Description:
The complex is a heterotrimer. Chain A is α+β, with helices and mostly antiparallel strands. Chain A folds into three domains: 2-111, Ubiquitin-like (UB roll); 117-228, Alpha-Beta Plaits, CATH 3.30.70; 301-454 and 512-566, Rossmann fold, CATH 3.40.50. Chain B folds into two domains: 8-67; 79-159, 3-Layer(aba) Sandwich (Glutaredoxin), CATH 3.40.30. Helices cover 42% and strands 10% of the residues of chain B. Chain B has helices at 8-19, 28-39, 44-54, 58-67, 87-91, 94-105, 148-159, and strands at 79-84, 118-123, 135-137, 142-143. In chain B, strand 3 and strand 4 (142-143) form a beta hairpin. In chain B, helix 2 packs across helix 3 and helix 3 packs across helix 4 (58-67). The longest helix of chain B is centred in the first third of the chain and has 12 residues, at 8-19. Chain C has three domains: 5-235, NADH-ubiquinone oxidoreductase 51kDa subunit (Rossmann fold), CATH 3.40.50; 245-329, Ubiquitin-like (UB roll) (Roll); 334-418, Up-down Bundle (de novo design (two linked rop proteins)), CATH 1.20.1440.230. In chain C, the strands form two sheets. Chain C has a five-stranded mixed sheet, sandwiched between helices. A four-stranded parallel sheet of chain C has the order 3-2-1-4, sandwiched between helices. In chain C, strand 2 (125-130), helix 7 (135-150) and strand 3 form a beta-alpha-beta unit. The longest helix of chain C is centred in the last third of the chain and has 19 residues, at 354-372. Chains B and C meet through helix 2, helix 4 and helix 5 of B and helix 5, strand 3, strand 5, strand 6 and strand 9 of C.
Amino acid sequence: MAEIFIDNKRFEYDQPTKVLQFILDQGLDLPHFCYHPALSIPANCRQCYVEAGLPVFDREKNAYELDANGDRVIRWFPKLQTACSLDATDGMVIKTHVTSELVRRGQKDVLEFILINHPLDCPICDQAGECPLQEQTYKYGPEGSRFEHKKVHKPKRIQLGPRVVLDAERCINCTRCVRFTQEISKTHQLTIVQRGDNNYPMTAPGHVFDDPYSMNTVDICPVGALTASDFRFKARVWEMASTPSIDLTNGKGCSVDLWTRDNLVLRITPRFNPAVNGHWMPDSGRAAFATLNHDRVDKPLVRLDGEAIPTSWNNALLTFTERVTAANRIAVVGSPHASTEDNYVFKRFFEAAGKGAAVFVPHVIPGSGDGFLLSDDQAPNATGARLLGLAETQAAALAAEVTAADLVVVLNDDLVGRGVLRAEDLAGKTITFASNHNATTAAADLVVPVTNGAEHVGTYVNVDGRAQRTIPAKETSRTDRRLNLEMSSGRLDTFGTRFDNWVSDLNRIDCVPAWEFLTEASQELGTGLYYESARDVLAEIAARIDAFAGISYERMDDERGIALLATNETVSA
Amino acid sequence: MATYVFTAEQLAQIEAIKSRYPSVQSATMPVLWLAQDAFGHVDADVQQLVADTLGLPASHVHGVATFYTQYYKEKKGKHVLDVCTCLSCHISGGYDMLHHLENRLGIKAGETTPDGLFTIQSVECLGACGYAPMMQITNDVFVNELTPEKLDQVIDTLKKGGSPDFEPIGLVNNRETA
Amino acid sequence: MSFDWKTYQPLLIPNIPGLADIKVYEQHGGYVQYKKVLGDQTTWTPEAVTNEVKSSGLRGRGGAGFNTGLKWSFMPKPDGGPRYIAANGDESEPGTFKDRTIFEFNPHSFIEGALIAAYAMRITAVYVYIRGEYRSWIRMMEKAIADAYAAGHIGKNIHGSGFSTDMYVHSGAGAYICGEESSLMESLEGKRGYPRVKPPFPAQRGLWGRPTTINNIETLANVPLILRIGAEAYSQIGAKTHPGPLLYGISGHVNKPGVYEFPSGMPIETLIHEVCGGVKGGKKVKAVIPGGSSTPPLRGDQLAGVCMDSDSLRTAGSMLGTAGMVVMDEDTDLVDVLTRIAHFYHHESCGQCTPCREGTGWLEKTLKKIRRGDGTPRDLELLLDICTQMEGRTICALADAAAWPVRYTITRFREDFEARVKTPVHAHA
Lengths: 573, 178, 429
């Protein structure tokens, strides 16, 4: 075990490491901009200066040379070192800003340099509040500027691509974005152009930054140079709450954060998960924020004379139970898009009612995956449905089943929209649970509005067999974050009041988790299913189904998801 | 939009260039030079041609082209007069020569005459400090020890379609006078 | 120095007409040293050649002045893969214009030296990086290399020795930074010239990730001479700690500017007043930049006894650099000169590291303000502060090269600057 001394404290390490990463791993602070753990190390921002020294080794005595006090004699590097590029070596001594005036001066000097040509437009900059430059200037920067000249002007408001906007004047040339397209997404769409203080990142002339992962550059941009087209000027970050969740638009199930304000999801950003997505996520998953808010089924709908009419929950429940009771043959269609909890209760409900076995149709578009963070599978939970024992079926078989049935019940899956069934297959005999309006809800007689991943607790098992879960980020008409312990809450949720002018009930959707509606229906029918919460459902799944043995929300949170498929475990030699 | 293509002969030269290096990327600069010699500049379309020909990302070629000052990222005059105004040329009257050219041609440094014949640029040290003030013509021949009269002669020569000769500087240690 | 410069016979660029022609070069003993080494590889093992160069005391002529043989010895043992020399002919530091005389007058001395170096380090290819502005000289070098190939000095199994190597010219395209060795390698790899973080050093991971040594053109041109006269004799030429013949590029306000070859350690005053025929118009010397624009200027009244070798110049408060000396007469406006130098470094900063990218521009803008007459005494302190914030804080030495002239011009010619900055009104209150 090698040792390293940081600000007079001794640490041990066994793997080769860079000093900056080691310091960050200890939970200590060292300001930096260009360094990113997943990218190459250019050491260009020069912010992570430290003083570094090595003990003098006396070969003859085979021991470290000691001074009069019995302390090791340290030979210091003559210049400040960038910790990001400095390899830790045994016995190394590091002084950071905590103990070194020289380092404090060095860090302050760099910040002064960075700021001389920076627009200082924080009040209108989207990055403000989550800006490493702003934070580090506040903590380590100079108090004022001695720069009394015109700043360098560069292109502003450049639409680099469909989803990313560039303000080159804010850029500090850390090259994270360029390195991302070279090393991670490998599209090589960005480069630094020009030279010296005219440098800025750009595409080749006439080229569009349409990298399917382009918005990751917005995340890693340490300033407001790259911003997201669909999020610009929408919200200050301190007005939002962020909730850990997962991307439900693809089978990969990237770990994400949902950023909400006033019960609207305003953006989705990746959350670090080495077992799934590292630091990144595809742009397509981020676009889902809109479907989490808009085009929602709000209140149950019944079709009368061809028209969908809002109705009461009571009426919806009675209609549902009557239709199920009356039906002789029901096509019970579960969903790879629905949570494990919903699929489980859905399946159990119809088993208990003696009305047939649930099936599901995988949502796979062959060739659409990229071998990185997009799989061919478009649904987040096909694996979960499979492990629960829902029978996998395909379009033709399902169409035959639907034709033969006198009632079709669909669990939140736009089968018409994705070409599995035709609207006429469903006409006059369909009940669907749905969170958004779509071609399937348009064909249904009864639409039961259900929560989406931003509103419920739910477990989803990705294409690699990893179970992860969502945490509610948005209130529905029937939930309240002050009462519901499953819900996340942000600073304003906690400290604000109902009377704050940003609070509005307009954005609360009247919907419930499918398992909750089905529990009530089971009570109505007397078939014996009863669950208080999604936790209850998951506990039963864990107890009854081997593949889910030992699973819990706490484990999923602590372990960043749980690998359920033993085949995906790799044993290293 | 102009379309540019390399001739078969140029493509053969490019293959020869590529064979000198263990990576294709290394051919970026020589091929940009070849393209500039062929087309007079390496504007966005030429950069794209170079990228396509070498199978390299267009952004890479663009980043390289904009880093190096000798590549013309836009069309320039037929003759580009690069007047050195750095250090030794500066203290030896480099700016006077630049201003003489500006007056003579009626344009400022960085501009091109309306007839497209001349572009004037003020450039950094060209490595001819002992023969200051001096200028380089269109990335090629050096004209040393400039005087207003010599500049006028050079302009006249260029206008007549001629080109100043390479000026040998005389062997070191044997030099008589400046 | 009891040395008569008038009778000195140049060794690097002898006064032989037509020497650039390979035939003439060979008639005058050219490629003999190279063949001697290849022909007797038991005596002249690669290590023996390296040791000979090391003990000659030859130091790099590109500015840093590192012992050349020692640098060669850093190359790891051959592993069967490619190994490279990048010969640095970027020569872009203002005041420096010496290597082009080698290209023009004695290209084969460089080629022979590079080939001997290639043998000593088991190099598989030599890339000669020449600044793009030297197009005329690039043509000369391309011809000389083609001739050397035709004569069988380069290629496969050279002269039946079993040694093979290649040599190519790579043209720069206008970027001072590419004279920095790691930036030069990036440029050779076809990229933007961004200096690399060290370690790893070029001998470990250089061009295309392989062991590489970067040597200046003039440095390599000295190698045949060392083998011809022997390391011992070579080490006796000129200054003890920085021996050998040296190309002095002298420009500015002297009567006979140009490149001169003399032993190292020539007294600056001899070079100005005798070799170069004195200052134009019989004026006094105000300042001398001894080794390219980044080396600290010396005052005209500071020159007595100062010689062009690294020790003497260090004592005097400057550096030998590239021995590209710029002489400025008593009428020179040093505020103007320094502003122009600052412009150069601002223009040439690659923009990678923050202190250099931002600091070079700040220096220039502040100096322009002073030149306009809008400066204040505080601006002088600010300039020195900016220098402190740049020096030693970047990946390569360009930030230092930009800061030193500012620091030392201001501290050594402070009266010129103070005369230009306004004194705030309240200072007299």
